[in-house]
Amino acid sequence: MGKWNIIHKVRYPPFDHHRWKPGSVPTIQEKVHTNLTTEQIKKSYPEFVIQSEEGWLLERSFVSNNELEWNEDSSVLVDNSAFVNLIDQQRSGWYIIPNNLHSVARRLINFAVILLLVTLTYLFIEPILRTIGIPSIGTKSIRLGLLDYPLLTVVVVPFLLMPLLLRMIANFLDLRKQQEYFKNPAQSPIIELDSKIQSGKSLRGKCIMPEKREDWKSVSIHWHVGTLPPSRTALVELSGRKLGEQPPVGLSTPLPHHWEEGLDDGTAGGEDAPMERQDIPGGVFLRPMRFSEEGGGQVVDEEGHFELTPPPTLWPGSVNSELLRIHWELVIKIKRHQNMPLLWVMPVRVQFPTSKIHLENLVVNDSRTEHFFIGKR
């Protein structure tokens, strides 16, 4: 009987991770004391490291007086603990994809701000340019109401208002799309999977579609793996703070929820998803996973049998804890003739591989929902 200390380390990327230097964000660490043997600790708590190019980190390790030696032929147990509420509420069932106008408006904002700054700079230095003989452009005044405005400003202002208008149109279209779909939701697919699913190996099973509607163009299936945000409660408590006090670095103040609390870590500031119906617990848009990788996919045929290749990189198996969350899921994508695709998501329990996992230099995904699944299968 040995005495092992299980060490969990997390430096999870905040919502706007580009604004942060990972070195300035403290690493949240959790130490768990156990009395497990070498074989028990190896099977129940396999080691892994997941980190980005910048330094964001998720790690599980264990220390003892004796160094643990891995046996490549040994089997690793799957994490059979219950899925956290985040998975049950926000990564299971039917979802829709936001309108592309959200992404267009986001890109247009950058252009509009640059155009405004250039315009203001030009209007500021225009008198100097005029004194040295350079003719001015767009500085003539135009009267609107009781005030006069430079013509150049009148031309630029619509570009500033365009992103806001596009967002309003996109939200209206999304809400109408939600209303139309949930009046008559489709029947959930029936999925039969192999009893043993292990990271690094193909996923085999059968997909039965109880119904097929006239506007459905094609049905495809794929699986992928990624990391979910840690529990806000765990992050706050392990940082030595209290929930009612100032949050640790990287977290915003808690937001009011119209559904059950605990479905985000408090970094998004309400910007992670477009406008959603408030009567759907967890929302109707599938949030991106900050670190993720897709496995194989294929079109579902009439018989429904599928075999999906694993992701190119070897990932850890399923982990369902308050601090570390490695999540695998099966996604059915239904392309439609006149509307955006539908998504049906089912979480999958996956066993760890029989070797240590160390993923380096991963790219952090954008945390905004409108960027998820755009341009993919």
Structural account:
- The chain has helices at residues 38-44, 85-90, 101-131, 151-183, 232-238, and strands at residues 4-11, 28-34, 48-52, 57-63, 93-96, 141-144, 147-150, 190-193, 203-208, 216-227, 292-299, 305-308, 319-320, 325-336, 342-348, 357-362.
- The protein is an alpha+beta fold and 377 residues long.
- It has three domains: 4-63, no CATH class; 85-97 and 190-353 and 366-371, Sandwich (Immunoglobulin-like), CATH 2.60.40; 104-178, no CATH class.
- Strands 5, 10, 11, 13, 14 and 15 form a six-stranded antiparallel sheet that branches.
Topology (elements, then pairings):
Layout: E1 4-11, E2 28-34, H1 38-44, E3 48-52, E4 57-63, H2 85-90, E5 93-96, H3 101-131, E6 141-144, E7 147-150, H4 151-183, E8 190-193, E9 203-208, E10 216-227, H5 232-238, E11 292-299, E12 305-308, E13 319-320, E14 325-336, E15 342-348, E16 357-362
Parallel strand pairs: 3-16
Antiparallel strand pairs: 1-2, 1-4, 3-4, 5-15, 6-7, 8-9, 9-12, 10-11, 10-14, 13-14, 14-15
Helix pairs in contact: 3-4
